[in-house]
Amino acid sequence: MSVFTYEALDSAGRKKRGEIEADSERGARQKLKSKQLIVRKLNAIEKHQKGKDSAGQAHLNSSETVLFLQQLATLTEAGMPLIEALSSMAEGMSRQQSRRAVFTIRKKVLEGGALADALRDQHFDEVICNMIAAGEETGQMEAVAARLAQLLEHRQALSQELLSATLYPAIILSFGIVVMLFLMAVVVPKMVAVFERSGGDLPTLTKVVIALSDFLRDHGGWLVVAIAALILGYKLVMRNLSAQEWRDAWLMRLPGISTLLITIDTARFSRTLGMLLSGGVPALAAMLIANQCWSLLPLKALGEDARESLREGESLAVALKKGGYIPTMATQLLAVGEQSGQLDSMLIRIADHYEKEVSRNLKRMLTIAEPLLVMFMAVGVGSLAMAILLPIAEMNQLVK
Question: Which range marks the domain in which residue 285 is found?
Fold first, then answer.
């Protein structure tokens, strides 16, 4: 099968552009003719032109990946063959890169390859590839795809909550800083000229504001360069593993922040491991994949040590308890799950609990941050206003 781009006219004379899959150019023309389209241009997508776009990377974003898995579960459960299901899913994609990615997956499956290998070639998440491989081996593709879609939906929901908790305060803070910089750079210099002509001693607050305004106007460009250099330097330093370990260890000592980060990592690890185990992935392979979910390096090292302990026959709950980072309730529930033989469902239950806890903590932090940011803006803008109004008031007293 090849993919062709076409330009055609419909029965009303309107231009239509798109892509179509066919065995040959003649087959593509026949398909377009059956859709009552008059072909004007038809070109095959060459591999050397689209190699980077179609074969090297997956062009499905997070929402499209969830949709892909949901459709895969629905169509295969309905009894549709995998090749036809992939064709239907590709035609339903809204973006050209997404369609090409699914067409590439279909082509590799049609050539005899496994769906998991085709997804891996498109750089899908390793969790998805391993669970799909387990689904192919056990014949439970639709159930595995449905679990994966649920897993990605939970990940997206958690990411959206984190984004919402940080975006709103960041917007308020940025707006307040922009307002104060505008006043310092535009309004204050004009008022300084008036104060200088009137003479007299200025209030201390006004002198401080004028000094800051002069500094911003004289060295503002260098200040921007310095901030950009600091950000670039931080990114370069963070390429070093030792620097990352120091940063993560420091974050895990911060009160409040450390608890939130550990809770987020625990929920993510638990859900991923639970989904992998319920999908039929062997325990050691599931641990290897789930350990990629840790964002903090000390927790990742703990997960790797736990995997080695699990290889030697030790309990997962005992191994994760050694570091002292994982919440006590999580390790207790893990022990119960291991004893009852329901570790996968217990891991999902742990993930549900801690995701709800993260949501509550984020809402609590946002509730506290909003009035603090408003107070910060009020103090900053109010100080600037006082620095401008105090000399004016003194000038009025002198006139009287």
Answer: 151-400
